[in-house]
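Quick review question:
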């Protein structure tokens, strides 16, 4: 049984639940413990990109039992062409200076890897003491750039998934599980 209420009208658009809320929580707890062990005494800064990251970041933070800090950035794509080159526009930058800090870049889902590659390059230029990636869902079928993923939740097939913060045209974020969207819902659009 799900512990959170589910918007019924969105359930009709889901063809299959890939991970239940419980399965996600269990995996996130394990990632949090691993991070706490690796960063003991280092007070890392967790960085996330809004908005898809909200659930994962909130749960991951609470699963880490050492002092950590958090900050967010927000990006938007210039155009489909720019997106294909992995160029994104920074809409909101971090508020925390990161030089000399231990950074953990927390990402909800990685597909081609272009967005992450671009963001990591720009963060690296600010000279953090270290920079590692923690991703919840890894789709590597369409990966164009090899990225070092220190912490990984789940490997998933090349499907479009929604829920637990992930959207399709801003919908479905508040589904407590992660599921596959029916083709008809994808084609219906926003
Ligand atoms: P990439 O640059 O191709 O790796 O795309 C990563 C970004 O695309 C993620 O941060 C998400 O915003 C979005 N994305 C990719 N796949 C999915 C998905 O299956 N569901 C929801 N968003 C996705």
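Suggested answer, residue by residue:
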């Amino acid at each position: 049984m799900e512990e959170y209420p589910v918007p019924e009208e969105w359930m009709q658009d889901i063809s299959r639940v890939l991970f239940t809320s419980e399965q996600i929580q269990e995996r996130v707890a394990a990632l949090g413990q691993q991070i706490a062990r690796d960063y003991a005494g280092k007070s890392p800064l967790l960085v996330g990109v809004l908005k898809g990251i909200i659930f994962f970041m909130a749960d991951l933070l609470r699963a880490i039992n050492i002092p950590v800090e958090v900050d967010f950035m927000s990006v938007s794509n210039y155009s489909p062409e720019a997106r294909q080159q992995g160029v994104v526009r920074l809409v909101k930058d971090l508020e925390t200076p990161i030089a000399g800090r231990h950074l953990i870049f927390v990402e909800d889902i990685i597909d081609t890897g272009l967005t992450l590659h671009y963001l990591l390059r720009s963060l690296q230029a600010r000279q953090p003491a270290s920079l590692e990636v923690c991703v919840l869902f890894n789709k590597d079928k369409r990966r164009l750039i090899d990225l070092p993923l220190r912490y990984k939740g789940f490997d998933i097939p090349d499907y479009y998934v929604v829920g637990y913060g992930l959207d399709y045209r801003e919908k479905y974020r508040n589904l407590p599980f992660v599921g596959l969207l029916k083709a008809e819902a994808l084609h219906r659009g926003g």
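Why it works: The beta strands are 14-19, 45-50, 69-77, 88-92, 102-110, 130-138, 151-155, 161-162, 178-181. The longest helix spans residues 21-38.
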